[in-house]
Design a protein that fits this description.
Shape: elongated
Helix content: under 10%
Bound molecules: calcium ion
Largest sheet: 8 strands, antiparallel
Oligomer: single chain
Structural class: mainly beta
Distance between the termini: 36 Å
Radius of gyration: 25 Å
Number of helices: 1
Strand content: 35-45%
Number of strands: 23
């Protein structure tokens, strides 16, 4: 394929310190906080995927696309095949299978790609290269109407909303600039040095656009989220209120990698208890994996043995003391003058005390209301028994301070593993 060559651009954009959020802090100051990877947004360059088809002979061959790296180190894309299907309305769907390999020599925390418009290079608003779209005769035709329909990999299996990335993160030499980036893109789990990840891109071309050749421009990023562990994103203690018969808690994975909760446990203690978390108020989580950007809903105790709506991902009925109740385990206090403490542990066998701030078993901890222990300070008490304690920014925030990270909300909205994923900045 022909065209200008673009130089490269590797601004290290953002290096923000962050914290693990893995210890609860109590009034007695003996906390230790382990260092965590810094959040980062790092542009890895601009790339171009070029696909050639056989026009109206849509069932014919499609030449595997040539992907041209824009002279940027870090990622290498290889097209392994292109398939084309003619739809009933005459439009055609292309699927390009790619391998992306990390050639940077170091792990890339969160590789992401997003379609990009470049001033003077792409057809405005399409992410497709101007002049590269031609018909069977080789004459230029508009890319308008060509749509990116799917971006998949084995972990996300869908287009992923991209947050915290803008056109300003890319600089194009020669006086041009990236004028827009797509609101959706593709992310992969952490890619080790030398590792390869398969992905695919899908396109649909309308019947009126007899494209023979088209070319998509996209930017590649390393976009490492700030929080590196599971969080308690929402807890509802008001069983019998707001339409919920049972308490529930929602977990969230704000990282870029799948996290197994096998062996994890949820433990609850009253606001005033200084004793160890009792096994009678604790449940083990099942052998499950929470994918990046996904929620995980756990139904707790109440008056009903029926699954809540939306469907819980777990509804443990036996506590860690071995007692079974069909209506669930752990009944948290919804008192507007009291509070409680809920902790997520990465073990079901240890029994640390609520004040044991250095215990490595802590993954996340929420003290609310009058809780005697919390991360820095408790979240404010519920204003009504129908409130939920809600973590800010869809669950993406954990600064180890419950009073600012988690707030009561009058709009309980439980999210489960089927909820649209959130890509954390
Ligand atoms: Ca935390
Ligand atoms: Ca309750």
């Amino acid at each position: 394929m022909t065209g200008k060559r673009w130089g490269l651009i590797l601004p290290a954009l953002l290096l923000a310190a962050c914290s693990t959020g893995q210890q609860a802090t109590a009034p007695t100051p003996t906390s230790t906080t382990a260092p965590a990877p810094a959040a980062s947004t790092r542009a890895l360059g601009l790339y171009e995927l070029s696909i050639q088809g056989s026009g109206a002979q849509a069932s014919g061959r499609v030449t595997p696309a040539a992907l041209r790296s824009q002279e940027i180190a870090g990622l290498t894309f290889t097209v392994t095949g292109v398939q084309v299907v003619t739809n009933g309305d005459g439009s055609r769907s292309y699927t390009a299978a790619l391998n992306v390999t990390n050639t940077s020599g170091a792990a890339i925390g969160a590789p992401a790609i997003i379609p990009a418009d470049i001033a003077g290079y792409t057809e405005s608003g399409t992410y497709f290269r101007a002049g590269a779209t031609t018909n069977q005769s080789g004459a230029p035709t508009s890319a308008s109407g060509i749509t990116l329909t799917q971006v998949t990999d084995s972990t996300y299996s869908m287009l992923f909303p991209v947050t915290g990335v803008s056109s300003a993160d890319f600089a194009v030499p020669g006086g041009s600039s990236v004028t827009a980036v797509s609101a959706q893109g593709w992310r992969t789990p952490t890619l080790a040095a030398g590792a390869t990840q398969a992905m695919s891109l899908g396109f649909t071309i309308p019947a009126s656009n007899d494209a023979y050749r088209f070319s998509l421009v996209f930017g590649a990023f390393d976009k490492t989220p700030a929080v590196n562990h599971l969080v308690i994103s929402q807890l509802f203690p008001g069983n019998g209120n707001a339409g919920y018969t049972n308490d529930w808690v929602e977990l969230f994975n704000p990282t870029n990698n799948p996290i197994s909760v096998s062996g994890y446990s949820l433990r609850y203690a009253s606001a005033v208890s200084a004793a160890a978390f009792a096994n009678t108020n604790a449940v083990a989580l099942p052998n499950a994996t929470i994918n990046p950007g996904r929620y995980y809903l756990v139904q707790l105790a109440g008056t009903s043995s029926a699954p809540m709506t939306p469907a819980p991902d777990a509804f443990p009925t036996t506590n860690l003391a071995g007692t079974t109740s069909a209506t669930g385990q752990i009944n948290m206090s919804a008192s507007t003058t009291g509070g409680g403490k809920l902790a997520l542990f990465n073990t079901a066998t240890t029994d640390p005390t609520p004040s044991n701030q250095t215990n490595a078993a802590y993954v996340d901890y929420v003290g609310y209301g009058t809780a005697n222990y919390s991360e820095t300070s408790p979240s404010p008490a519920l204003t009504t028994t129908s409130d939920v304690e809600l973590r800010a920014a869809s669950g993406c925030t954990d600064t180890n301070n419950n009073s600012s990270d988690v707030r009561p909300s009058s709009a309980p909205t439980p999210r489960n593993s089927a909820t649209t994923p959130v890509a954390c900045p």
